[in-house]
Structure formats: structure tokens, C-alpha cells
UniProtKB/TrEMBL annotation, chain A:
Organism, scientific name: Caldithrix abyssi
UniProt-listed Pfam families: Fer4_11
The protein's name in its UniProt record: 4Fe-4S dicluster domain-containing protein
PROSITE patterns, per the entry: 4FE4S_FER_1 (PS00198), 4FE4S_FER_2 (PS51379)
InterPro entries: 4Fe4S_Fe-S-bd, 4Fe4S_Fe_S_CS, ET_IronSulfur_Cluster-Binding
Annotated ranges, domain 4Fe-4S ferredoxin-type: 4-33, 49-80, 81-110
Alphabetical list of Gene3D superfamilies matching this protein: 3.30.70.20
Automatic annotation (TrEMBL), chain B:
InterPro entries: Asp_de-COase-like_dom_sf, MoPterin_dinucl-bd_dom, Mopterin_OxRdtase, Mopterin_OxRdtase_4Fe-4S_dom, Prok_Mopterin_Oxidored, TAT_signal
Protein name according to UniProt: Nitrate reductase
Domain 4Fe-4S Mo/W bis-MGD-type, first and last residues per copy: 48-104
Source organism of the structure: Caldithrix abyssi
Similarity-based family: Belongs to the prokaryotic molybdopterin-containing oxidoreductase family.
Lineage: Bacteria, Pseudomonadati, Calditrichota, Calditrichia, Calditrichales
Keywords from the named record: 4Fe-4S, Iron, Iron-sulfur, Metal-binding, Molybdenum, Oxidoreductase, Signal
Keyword Lyase: no
GO molecular function: 4 iron, 4 sulfur cluster binding; metal ion binding; molybdopterin cofactor binding; oxidoreductase activity
Length: 178, 741
């Protein structure tokens, strides 16, 4: 078994949006839509400021509300726990969009719901997702959490990290290194 | 046909034409798309093999691969063998496909004509466009001399127009990247070390333990390899000291953020030099062995104590001391970054020189983690006859001014186009390649005036731009994805050569620059300067000289060559520097000779009047100036700029987050409306915006009137007396509500 996950280093990331653009070209995401996006969170008061930059996307949660609530099972778990939407089975009811605490999904102009796939087509070929392989600052690590020797398993053992909205109880598989 | 327009009106591209369709007939039949000809290589097959390219979205020129899916354009990825990108493009390069697919591109040659008393563009054939240009160029040559034609250029294809202009008899060839950007930096380092910093910069950031950034917003300026190294250094725990009135992305990764009062950086630099000398933190051996003028320097900065600098810069003395010590602790692996866009306040050569001096005291030039020695491939030039010797050049218009300008000043040529009583010849013709002068040159009112005095204005570009609207002839170039260009020969840690080959057939009726220049040369009787049959032959000839070939390069994209020099200075070796004294000149003998301060000296700059704020501008990582602000993939991630305003200031003016405001400068010039970004990340005495937005051409459907254009507000400059750079951060703005009188 594998459990795919991503670790994103907020120390390295400069918020350039290359991950967003690479995803759009790799996956033919139509202009005006995106599967990943950048959040810049400023805290503190001048001149004591902090800035956290995050490249966000579907968290491929281990307890994904979208999978649970999908009436047609179009939203499902594919290999390695990747949350996928079967475009043919999707009836566009948007229940999943309402259930996702991360706002990770959108309705594709062709009528189905779409979102990040962890570039499953590349992962199956042994490659990294497009965003990971393009990132100029090497801010992202993709890998298998069930493999204790994988880079991602190791980095999560040594570096402080967090997930987004853990209180939603979705068990996200995208981690932010702090 | 060669009639002169008394007053050029701005013409919206295709205003006279028929929307998207190309109706212009192409007389040069041999180049119809789809036909395979001797002169023009077209990729006929629907092949999914990748084509090598190097990126043209910015000057970093990363090498990569263009991929197709089912024969259709798909994506661009970096070439792992390329040291500029290390296999990873930046967002602009990744979004390069958008430059190709942009439906608003220039589509066919255009000629300005008068129709019912109104100036319009008519679609023309290439033949007509070339004849028009050649006729005018011949006329100018005869009447005023060939030196009265100037070329402004930014980008790869410009090299063919440079050849054309030199063959024609003019060496008035200017790149705005000099006087409007990095000219002062190159001169400052030349004066100090006898060598410039180059592009890509020779900064060894990857190995730095301490990085000092003065206004350089690495990460927002997406100079790819440099950003990569910066992030690596940060991840490895390097100490970053960022001096910036704005909490930039780089500042957020810094141990020290010094929110300096704008326009006072030189005072801080002098105080750092003072501390390093007074506390004897400098590299004594290095200074003794390699530098000239230490005692004069010591004397000159004696009074520049941190206490002296505090009220000027607002940076506390203990912070100045602490950061100076931090720099010394990591030396020589400390780099005081020389910056890139440094034309700020008019004393820019001197300010950058203070940084260069600091680097010398820390011993970081020629040392690991500081600056390495660049290596560049020696590629044979295709032999051409000797160029005629011009009788005059732009400098004649500025007797005794800017003595140390080593390259032509774009702004100088622009000024010298406006006739005055003292000038025997003003410029009569401009060829503008790949640079949107209206947004590139400060003081757009002056640029417009200059344009009105021209007999000929040719614009070569991919997109309609503010400058193309004023051209007599517009030549549409195909994008870098649709053409060959000259080889990329970048300096770096080792020499590399990269190839750009066409991945797609040129869309519409567009052509590559090499072809345009060659065709024009034929019409001007200058064909002997373009002796090659076609671009493939030209490239193959050059590549053979490094033991490669066009065939090999199509397979590998990038060729790495051996570095014969050492990256760093060897311990104990003697080195001679290319300066008058043969040493690193802390005291510049050349500056002294020309009557400038041989050691930088701080002078106060004008401050914003009450209710006004200094206008600062910069870059966003997903855009390259105005070049990309209409790219569909990149507007998707950033479609307009915002004005950064400190919350206190916003409160005073009743401006709320996301409000649209209008900026008005000290001369009453107003901007387009721009959204307020109310943020703690900027000081109270300055505002900030990203350059390249607020476009005024309606045909740029995604960028038209999106955000504001900073250049429009830069109606004043301060000239650098040393080399003529145009200091542009000397403008002040206040707020107006939309529609307010
Ligand atoms: S590509 Fe990398 S550096 Fe750029 S925004 Fe994405 S994660 Fe951050
Ligand atoms: S830094 Fe970006 S825009 Fe510049 S050449 Fe490289 S990929 Fe292209």
C-alpha cells in the first residue's frame, strides 16, 4: 500500500505561482480556473512582521468529506489515497464543493467538478506532480508516507509542520513545513 | 508614401483593420506558412518530440524544452543541463505558451496612413513595409547622415538589427537596461574591480552564509537561478539582512529587516563601512594585498558613525553595529548584493560603489559565497565585412556630460531627438525592437515630444504596445517559440551555449527578426553584412567552432563546456585588476580624475511634501514588465497591480482595503485607478506598486486599464552625473478619489 502526501516548505516558497501555472499547462486547466493557488498570510504589526506563503490545493484527505457526500461515487479514492473525481460519473450536483473545508474544487466549464489530482498520471509513471517538479525553490516534496525511508517521511519526522484546518477532522495529506 | 506626419496620433492597433482576421496579402510568396523553403525552416510533422528553446520572457534566458501533445502546443519545461534554470522554469517561462496563444498578438505588418483626415494603420505586405522603411532610411542617410537613426533594443532578435544599423553607419544602439536599470551597477563595479557584475550575476549566493539585500526583492524579481540559490541558502540557514522600506518576500525570510527611510541607503552603507573599519572587522590581508586607497577611505568615513546614520536612515545604531558584525562574522562568504535595477536617486553609481567597497572590505570578491569569476564560451562569429565608421554619435549631443557612460543612453537619445539651437543634428529615425519605450523610459511626456520630431519610427514587437501605437511601421515578430535566434552564450560558473529552435510554425503573418533584418539589408544594399544563406547555416557555422553542430544542439539543447579558469581567487596568488592602479579601488582614481567624489559621500535627497508619499515600484514574480501583462496564463495569476499603503496612511485618507484610488504626482499627473492594498508591510512615507500594468491600448483585451502605470507618474528624474542613469524614485504622489476633480 502507499499513502501519497505532499510537504510544502513555507521557508523556501517565495509565492511565485509557478506551481499554479505549471498545473494549468500540464492539466489543461481552462483559463480563469485553477487547481492550486497561493495564500500570503501576514501577521504582526510594523515593524515586527511575519509572512507565511503557502501553495494550497486539495489535501487528499484520508477522511475526505467530498468522497463521503458524493451521491454517485464519482468522488473516490484512487491508488495511494489520491482523491479523484470521475468526470463521467459526476452529475455536477456540487455537494462535494459545499462539503470541502478548503474550497479546493471548482466546476469545470464542461459541467463536471474538477480539482487537483496529485498529477496521478505522472505519479503512475514514477514522476513527481507538475507543481513539485517545476518549483524553482524546491519547496515541495511528494512521496509515500507508508515508506518510512521516503524523503517526505523523513522530513516530517525532523521538521516542524502543520496541516490546514485540522479541526475539520479530515486528516489532510498536504503538510506545511514551518 | 514617404510623407511625414506632422503630429503622430496614437493609433490603436488594427483600428483600421478587420479585427482578428489577417487580410494583408503576402507578396513574399516564398514564406507562406506551410511551405517548406530554403530560407525558413518549418516543422511540418506533427511530432511530439520536444524542441529546444531558451526563454525570451525575461533576460535570464533559461533553456528548456517545448512539448506538444497530439501535435498541439502543450507546455514548456526547463532543461536540467542548463545552469540558468537547473531544469525548472519560473512562472513566466512556464506560462510562455500564453505568449504564443495570445489572441491579441500583432498579426501582420502595419503602415500609418491618413484617411479622411484621421491617422490609421493599414495592413500591409512585408514588401510594402520594407520598402517604406528602406526609402525613409535612405532619405535620412542622404539628408542628415546615417548616425541620425538610432536603435532601441531589448531581447534576442535585436542582435540582427544591431548588425543592420552598424552596416548602415550608425552606432547609436541603446538598451534601456543600461540607463534605466543596471548601468550604474556595471559602472560602479567596473570602477572598483575593473569588471562588471554581468548577467546572470556572478553572485555565489548558493554558498553564501550571509546575504545583504539593499532593495533587491529576490523572489519577487524572479531571476530564476538566483532565486533558486537564495532559497537554498535560506534553507541552509544563511543570515539574510534585507534593507527595504517594504517588507518584501525576501524580508520575510530575513533575520534582519531594516525598514529604511527611502533614499537614505548610502548613509547606511557608509555607517556599515565605518563600523567595519573602526572595529577592525575587515579582511586585513585581502585589503592590504588587493586594494588601493584604504587610508583615504578610513578618513572619509570617520564621521559616518551609526549615530550619525540613525536620524537619516531611522535604523537604530545598535542594529547597524550588529548587522555589520554579522557580515564580518561570515566573511568572506558574505555578499552585499549589487542589485540589478539601481537607477533610483541619481547618485546611484556612488551608492552601488559603497556596496562594492563593503564587499572588498569583507574580501568577498573572488571568494566562495561572495562573487565568482565568470566563464563564457568562445564561439566564433560568422565573418562579416568591416562596418563603416560613424562620424558622430549620441555623446556629441552631451559635451562633457556623463563621461563614464560606457553604453549608449536610451534616455539620452530620446532627449537628443528633441531639436535645440545648439545641436547640429538631432535624431530622425528610431527603430524600436522589443521594448515598449512609453513604459520603459521615464518622463513619458518627453518621449512623446521626441517622437513628434521623427521622420521614421519603426516598432518591431510581438504584441501591440503603447510604442507601436506611435510607429509609422509596425513589424510583427513571431514569438520565440516560432523561430530560431542567435545562440545563447551566457556567462556562469562554467560556459554554456543554448539553442532556440522553432517549436511551432509562425502564427498569422509574423516573421523572425533575423529574416526582417536580412530583407531590409537587401533593400538598403547592405546584403554583404548578412552573408549567410539562412539562419540554419549561420548557427551551424558558429556551433562548429565549439565542436558541436545544429544537429547535435537540436538533440541536447544546451552544451556545457569546460571551465578553464578558477572560480575563486587562489590563496596567496597575486592578481592584477583592470583598474588604473591595478588594484581594487576603494578610492577611485578615475572618478577623481573626472572631478567626482572618489569615495562615496552622502547627500540628502528631496523629501515628499506633506500629504505626499514617495513612489516606489518593483516586480511581481509572474510578470516581466509590460511584456507579460496580457499573457492569458499569467493574467490568470495576476491581472492587475495594487498600491501598497500603510494602514495609518490609509486611515488618514479614508481608504479601505480594496478601494480604487487614483494617484496624483507632484506635477499634477494622474494615474489610472488602482486598488488599495492596505498593509503593514510598507512604511508610512512611501507607496509601492508593481510595474507594467495600467496599459492604455484597448486592443490588449486582458490588460487594458487594469491597474496603474508607474512610469506615467515618473515625470521627473535625477540624472546620475557619472554615467547618465535616470534616477526614478524621486517622484511623490498623493491620493485622489476616482472622479474627483
Ligand atoms: S512554485 Fe514553489 S516557490 Fe513558487 S509559489 Fe509554488 S511552491 Fe512557492
Ligand atoms: S527567469 Fe523565467 S522568464 Fe526569465 S528566462 Fe527564466 S524562465 Fe524565462
Amino acid at each position: 500500500m502507499s499513502r501519497y502526501a505532499m510537504a510544502i516548505d513555507t521557508k523556501r516558497c517565495v509565492g511565485c505561482t509557478d506551481c499554479v501555472v505549471a498545473c494549468q499547462t500540464e492539466n489543461d486547466v481552462p483559463v480563469g480556473y485553477c487547481r492550486d493557488w497561493i495564500v500570503e498570510a501576514t501577521s504582526g504589526v510594523y515593524p515586527e512582521l511575519q509572512l507565511e506563503i503557502r501553495s494550497e490545493r486539495c489535501n487528499h484527505c484520508s477522511d475526505a468529506p467530498c468522497v463521503r457526500c458524493c451521491p454517485t461515487s464519482a468522488s473516490h479514492y484512487a491508488e495511494g489515497g489520491i482523491v479523484m473525481v470521475d468526470h463521467d460519473d459526476c452529475i455536477g450536483c456540487k455537494a462535494c464543493i459545499a462539503s470541502c473545508p478548503y474550497d479546493a474544487r471548482y466546476v469545470h466549464p464542461e459541467g463536471y467538478v474538477d480539482k487537483c489530482t496529485f498529477c496521478i498520471h505522472r505519479v503512475k509513471e514514477g514522476e513527481n506532480p507538475a507543481c513539485v517538479s517545476v518549483c524553482p525553490t524546491h519547496a515541495m516534496i511528494f512521496g509515500d508516507l507508508d515508506d518510512k525511508n521516503s524523503e517526505i517521511s523523513k522530513v516530517l519526522q525532523t521538521r516542524k509542520h502543520k496541516t490546514l484546518i485540522p479541526e475539520a477532522g479530515t486528516k489532510p495529506n498536504v503538510f506545511y513545513l514551518l | 508614401m514617404t510623407k511625414r506626419f506632422k503630429r503622430r496620433q496614437f493609433i490603436k492597433i488594427l483600428g483600421a483593420g478587420t479585427g482578428g482576421a489577417v487580410l494583408g496579402t503576402t507578396a513574399l510568396k516564398a514564406f507562406q506558412p506551410g511551405e517548406k523553403t530554403d530560407n525558413f525552416h518549418l516543422l511540418g510533422k506533427a511530432t511530439d518530440a520536444a524542441t529546444p528553446t531558451y526563454c525570451e520572457i525575461c533576460f535570464w534566458k533559461c533553456a528548456g524544452w517545448v512539448h506538444k501533445k497530439d501535435g498541439k502546443p502543450w507546455k514548456i519545461t526547463g532543461n536540467p543541463d542548463d545552469p540558468n534554470s537547473n531544469g525548472r522554469f519560473c512562472p513566466r517561462g512556464t506560462g510562455g505558451i500564453g505568449a504564443y496563444t495570445d489572441p491579441d498578438r500583432l498579426k501582420t505588418p502595419l503602415i500609418r496612413v491618413e484617411k479622411n483626415g484621421k491617422q490609421v494603420f493599414r495592413e500591409a505586405t512585408w514588401e510594402e513595409a520594407f520598402d517604406y522603411i528602406a526609402d525613409k532610411m535612405k532619405m535620412i542617410k542622404k539628408k542628415w547622415g546615417p548616425e541620425c537613426v538610432a536603435l532601441f533594443t531589448h531581447g534576442s532578435g535585436g542582435s540582427y538589427f544591431k548588425t543592420l544599423l552598424k552596416a548602415y553607419g550608425s552606432n547609436n544602439i541603446a538598451a534601456p537596461s543600461y540607463a534605466q536599470c543596471r548601468g550604474p551597477r556595471e559602472e560602479a563595479y567596473l570602477l572598483t574591480y575593473g569588471e562588471g557584475v554581468g548577467s546572470p550575476e556572478r553572485t555565489d549566493i548558493r554558498n553564501s552564509k550571509c546575504i545583504v539585500l539593499i532593495g533587491s526583492h529576490i523572489g519577487e524579481n524572479m531571476h530564476n537561478g538566483q532565486v533558486q540559490e537564495f532559497s537554498e541558502a535560506v534553507a541552509n540557514g544563511a543570515t539574510v539582512i534585507t534593507v527595504d522600506p517594504r517588507f518584501s518576500t525576501a524580508a520575510s525570510k530575513s533575520k534582519y529587516w531594516l525598514p529604511i527611510k527611502p533614499a537614505t541607503d548610502l548613509a547606511l552603507l557608509l555607517a556599515w563601512i565605518n563600523v567595519i573599519i573602526e572595529e577592525e572587522l575587515y579582511d586585513k590581508e585581502y585589503v592590504k594585498k588587493y586594494t588601493y586607497g584604504f587610508d583615504e577611505l578610513k578618513k572619509a568615513v570617520k564621521h559616518n558613525t551609526p549615530e550619525w546614520a540613525y536620524p537619516i536612515t531611522t535604523i537604530k545604531p545598535h542594529i547597524i553595529r550588529e548587522t555589520a558584525r554579522e557580515m564580518a562574522r561570515h566573511a568572506p562568504a558574505t555578499i552585499v548584493h549589487p542589485g540589478r535595477h539601481v537607477t533610483w536617486y541619481g547618485d546611484d553609481t556612488q551608492r552601488v560603489r559603497a556596496g562594492a567597497i563593503l564587499n572588498a572590505l569583507l574580501g568577498s570578491w573572488g571568494r566562495r559565497g561572495g562573487f565568482y569569476a565568470q566563464a563564457k564560451a568562445h564561439v566564433k562569429k560568422y565573418p562579416v565585412p568591416k562596418f563603416p565608421k560613424p562620424k558622430k554619435n549620441w555623446k556629441d549631443a552631451f559635451p562633457n556630460q556623463f563621461p563614464l557612460a560606457n553604453l549608449a543612453l536610451s534616455s539620452g537619445i530620446c532627449d537628443a531627438t528633441i531639436p535645440t539651437a545648439e545641436r547640429d543634428c538631432s535624431f530622425k529615425g528610431w527603430i524600436v525592437y522589443g521594448t515598449n519605450l512609453m513604459l520603459t523610459l521615464p518622463q513619458p511626456q518627453q518621449t512623446l515630444e521626441a517622437i513628434q520630431n521623427l521622420e521614421l519610427l519603426v516598432a518591431i514587437d510581438i504584441m501591440p504596445a503603447e510604442i507601436t501605437g506611435y510607429a509609422d511601421v509596425v513589424l510583427p515578430e513571431c514569438t520565440y517559440l516560432e523561430r530560431y535566434d542567435d545562440l545563447r552564450i551566457s556567462p556562469g560558473r562554467f560556459p554554456t551555449v543554448a539553442l532556440r529552435a522553432p517549436a511551432f510554425e509562425p502564427k498569422y503573418n509574423t516573421k523572425p527578426a533575423w529574416w526582417m533584418a536580412k530583407e531590409l539589408a537587401n533593400r538598403l544594399g547592405l546584403e554583404k553584412y548578412f552573408p549567410w544563406k539562412n539562419i540554419e547555416e549561420y548557427l551551424d557555422y558558429r556551433l562548429k567552432s565549439i565542436g558541436s553542430s545544429l544537429k547535435e544542439m537540436k538533440e541536447i539543447g544546451v552544451k556545457k563546456l569546460e571551465n578553464e579558469e578558477d572560480l575563486y581567487y587562489l590563496d596567496g596568488e597575486e592578481y592584477e585588476f583592470n583598474t588604473p592602479t591595478g588594484k581594487i579601488e576603494l578610492y577611485s582614481t578615475a572618478l577623481a580624475e573626472y572631478g567626482f567624489d572618489p569615495i562615496p559621500r552622502y547627500t540628502a535627497h528631496e523629501e515628499p511634501p506633506d500629504g505626499y508619499y514617495r513612489l516606489l515600484y518593483g516586480r511581481a514574480p509572474m510578470h516581466s514588465f509590460s511584456r507579460t501583462t496580457n499573457n492569458p496564463l499569467l493574467t490568470d495569476v495576476k491581472s492587475e497591480n495594487e498600491v501598497w499603503i500603510n494602514p495609518k496612511v490609509a486611515r488618514e485618507w479614508g481608504i479601505k482595503q480594496g478601494d480604487y484610488v487614483v494617484l496624483e504626482n507632484q506635477d499634477g499627473v494622474r494615474s489610472n485607478r488602482i486598488r488599495a492594498k492596505v498593509t503593514q508591510r510598507i512604511r508610512h512615507d512611501a507607496i509601492y506598486m508593481v510595474h507594467g500594468f495600467g496599459r492604455s491600448d484597448k486592443r490588449l483585451r486582458r490588460s487594458y486599464l487594469r491597474g496603474a502605470d508607474d512610469t506615467h507618474l515618473i515625470t521627473r528624474v535625477k540624472l546620475d552625473p557619472v554615467m547618465g542613469g535616470t534616477g526614478m524614485r524621486v517622484n511623490f504622489v498623493t491620493f485622489r478619489k476616482e472622479g474627483e476633480a
